[in-house]
């Protein structure tokens, strides 16, 4: 069996907020690898550092200590302009609040990252994501004319259109009903199985984590456990065991 290589890895991550007595270590020494072609979920209680970890490994926030690599490129220490370009070209993002541009159509929103990079969409790449998302008859609609589920599928298509090294999704189903959530997660799952996409998702929901290959659990800014081949029931059990041990 070949060991999958890391799409993203980080070592010794420390991130602190605030000063004096109110100083908080949101990340207190995290070593982590997100393997290529794998769907990883990050879970943990509120305030455990999930979003901070995602923002730090995605180069959206500076770390106080430690290093982050995207493939062979070390992100920590890069100049802001270099980092911005690298994020645009090599990382896709899906946020809870869709973050679509209201004046653009669905199609324009999807192809925006390519426009910004001065690239044309490969016809098959565009067809592939539009097909997978079931968005054919919505391409000329603006976000306000789409349901929440459709808007999030546009956001996911936009994240995937550049075939990024990794897609980071922060609570992508947080604002969706259960049917739209399942549709979106099924799409992310297929992008991993069919296209070899790497996906990292922060979620509170065991049902969402059940779509992933591996769940990492954070507590007080540290990785405390992981679960392979998760099912919602096993995720829930594991979360309950943390609640019991937390003081
Ligand atoms: N910009 C900030 N300024 C000050 N403290 C912050 C900031 N961002 C996060 N924190 C603190 O860092 C800790 C980790 O926050 P983070 O948002 O990463 O947790 P989380 O697990 O994603 O939480 P949630 O599930 O509630 O979104 C918390 O104690 C939080 O209050």
Structure description:
Keywords: ATP-binding, Nucleotide-binding, Transport. One of its GO terms (molecular function) is ATP binding. Residues 8-245 form the ABC transporter domain. Strands 6-7-8-3-9-10 form a six-stranded mixed sheet, sandwiched between helices. The termini are far apart. It has helices spanning 50-57, 80-90, 106-116, 123-133, 148-160, 178-195, 206-209, 232-245, and strands at 6-17, 24-35, 39-43, 65-70, 73-74, 91-95, 166-170, 199-202, 214-219, 222-228. It is an alpha/beta fold and 247 residues long. It contains eight helices and ten strands. Helix 3 (106-116) packs parallel to helix 5 and helix 5 (148-160) packs parallel to helix 6. The chain has a single domain, classed as Rossmann fold, CATH 3.40.50. It is 36% helix and 26% strand. It binds adenosine-5'-triphosphate (ATP). The site of adenosine-5'-triphosphate (ATP) has 12 residues, from strand 2 and helix 1.
């Amino acid at each position: 069996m070949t060991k999958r290589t890391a799409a993203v890895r980080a070592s010794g991550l420390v991130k602190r907020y605030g000063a004096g007595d109110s100083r908080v270590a949101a990340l207190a020494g995290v070593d982590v690898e997100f393997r290529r072609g794998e769907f990883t979920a990050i879970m943990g209680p509120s305030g455990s550092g999930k979003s901070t970890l995602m923002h730090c490994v995605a180069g959206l926030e500076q770390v106080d200590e430690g290093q982050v690599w995207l493939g062979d490129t070390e992100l920590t220490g890069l100049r802001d302009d270099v980092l911005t370009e690298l994020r645009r070209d090599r990382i896709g993002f899906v946020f809870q609040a869709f973050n679509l541009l209201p004046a653009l159509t669905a199609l324009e929103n999807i192809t925006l990252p390519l426009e910004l990079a001065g690239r044309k969409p490969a016809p098959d790449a565009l067809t592939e994501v539009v097909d997978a998302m079931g968005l054919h008859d919505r391409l000329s609609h603006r976000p306000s004319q789409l349901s929440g589920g459709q808007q999030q599928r546009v956001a996911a298509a936009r994240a995937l259109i550049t075939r990024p090294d990794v897609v980071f999704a922060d609570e992508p189903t947080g604002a969706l009903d259960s049917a739209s959530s399942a549709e979106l997660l099924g799409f992310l799952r297929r992008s991993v199985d069919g296209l070899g996409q790497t996906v990292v998702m922060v979620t509170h929901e065991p049902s969402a984590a059940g779509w992933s290959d591996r769940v990492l659990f954070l507590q007080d800014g540290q990785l405390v456990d992981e679960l392979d081949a998760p099912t919602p029931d096993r995720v829930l059990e594991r979360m309950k065991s943390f609640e019991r041990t937390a003081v």
